[in-house]
Design brief:
The protein has 425 residues and is α+β, with helices and mostly antiparallel strands. The N terminus is likely disordered. 38% of the residues lie in helices and 34% in strands. The two termini are 29 Å apart. The protein has eight helices and 17 strands. Helix 2 runs antiparallel to helix 4, helix 4 packs antiparallel against helix 7 and helix 6 packs antiparallel against helix 7. Strands 1, 2, 5, 6, 9, 10, 12, 14 and 17 form a nine-stranded mixed beta sheet that branches.
Length: 425
């Protein structure tokens, strides 16, 4: 322990702390670059999704029946005479289906802006609905069933063609209709009292999510897609049946009550979100500074080597550079390949540098072993999201236990205290 005695353990630890602070500041700068790149990715993703039509959402079909309400308003004058004046107002009666069936077949594609990509989809949506037009007669109310509007609520940007609406066996090409002052996709039509049937097949496009509002008293929807990582929990109802495989998924929903403020469907989740993995990797960045410093400190304590603060600074900087390499390379190569390249480059740089500085090949080999352990731990933590916290806690415990075991016989109070020379006999 002679080498480290000269500077003192306390001074060495203070220097290591100061160097660690500088390196953490550098790591924070790189994390800022990660946030900037992530913002650029989100902007590119938003642009791709906007050009593809954005989130697909649909509510309907509905029938809007014009209603004329007529009544007479009586006026009493000061001389006791009376008069009645006819009053009218135009109202709208909305009718939702009693049964609604939806069947979607979707195909996904990856679109790219620069180095960034996001999934979009195209496909078809078949709809069948059954209406019961039952408008009880009320005095003064006239229902204009021959001037009704049948419509759906969806964004026209999500439609690739004009859908054809079939009502009671008659086909109508849909257009923009105005319902209570708002533009909808629909038709002007005549409906009959009692049962009315409706069907259509829509050619659609979109990105981000596919959602339908269950407006019927009984709604059934089935979806078949080639996307293999859907997120069903983003909607209000989970599918009653689902099957997910590497080739895609199928799902079926059954909703027994109309619920105009809820949705069924799914969102598109990219199976490997690069920037989420990078964020999680940066969470463990402090370990790549502390653990190598602990090893170097113990080497000074037990192996008789002497390291300057600059050696700590350069070694730590090489560890921090790993995260910069990982960020830069992973935008062009698969994450695993970028990880291996960054890990090999950073660990070999530090190991060879220390072997050259100390003239001890064993120290360089030992550092390489430490880095293999560190990088392997980080990689498996990134792949095991559900157990990452547990793995981190166990790893920190093991590091602390190893340090305590290696220093169990060190008398810290005696380090740096010179022994008095023995008296002559």
């Amino acid at each position: 322990m002679k080498k480290i005695m000269m500077g003192g353990v306390t001074a060495k630890l203070l220097v290591m702390g100061a160097v660690s602070g500088l390196l953490l500041a550098g790591l924070a700068c790189i994390r800022g670059q990660l946030e900037s790149r992530q913002h650029t990715y989100r902007h590119a993703k938003d642009e791709i999704e906007r050009a593809a039509g954005g989130d697909f959402s649909l509510a309907g079909p509905y029938i809007a029946v014009p209603v004329t309400h007529t009544w007479y308003q009586e006026t009493v004058y000061s001389d006791g005479s009376r008069s009645k004046e006819k009053q009218t107002e135009e109202l709208t009666e909305f009718i939702a289906p009693v049964k609604g069936t939806y069947a979607a077949a979707l195909k996904s594609d990856m679109r790219t802006i620069g180095i960034y990509s996001a999934p979009v989809f195209t496909g078809t949506l078949g709809m069948q609905a059954e209406f019961m037009v039952e408008l009880p007669p009320k005095q003064g109310y006239e229902y204009h069933l021959d001037s009704a509007q049948l419509y759906i609520r969806t964004d026209r940007l999500n439609l690739s063609q004009h859908p054809v609406f079939t009502l009671n066996g008659t086909a109508y090409e849909s257009d923009i209709v105005t319902v209570t002052g708002k533009e909808r996709i629909g038709i002007l039509c005549a409906v009959a009292p009692g049962r009315n049937t409706f069907s259509t097949d829509m050619v659609l496009r979109g990105a981000g999510s596919f959602m339908v509002t269950p407006v019927a008293k009984q709604t059934v929807m089935s979806v078949a897609s080639d996307w293999n990582s859907p997120n069903f929990t983003s909607c209000d109802y989970l599918p009653v049946v689902r099957d997910i495989s590497a080739e895609g998924f199928t799902a079926r929903w059954e909703v027994p009550y109309a619920s105009a403020d809820t949705s069924i469907g799914f969102t598109y989740v990219q199976p490997v979100n690069l920037y989420k993995q990078l964020e999680r990797a940066f969470t463990y960045g402090i370990l790549f500074i502390i653990v190598p410093f602990i090893v170097l400190f113990l080497s000074e304590l037990f192996a008789g080597v002497s390291l300057h603060p600059v050696n700590y600074l350069l070694s730590g900087a090489a560890c921090v550079i790993f995260f910069l390499l990982l960020l830069a390379v992973s935008e062009h190569l698969p994450f695993a390949a970028a990880y291996v390249l960054g890990a090999c480059g950073s660990s070999l740089l530090v190991s060879l540098y220390l072997a050259a500085v100390t003239a001890k090949l064993k120290l360089g080999a030992m550092m390489e072993g430490v880095f293999v352990l560190l990088y392997a731990y980080l990689f498996f933590s990134l792949k095991s999201e559900d157990y990452a916290f547990l793995m981190g806690a166990l790893f920190a415990f093991c590091i602390l236990a190893a340090v305590m075991w290696c220093t169990r016989k060190v008398d810290w109070s005696r380090i740096g205290v010179r022994k008095a020379p023995a008296e002559a006999a």
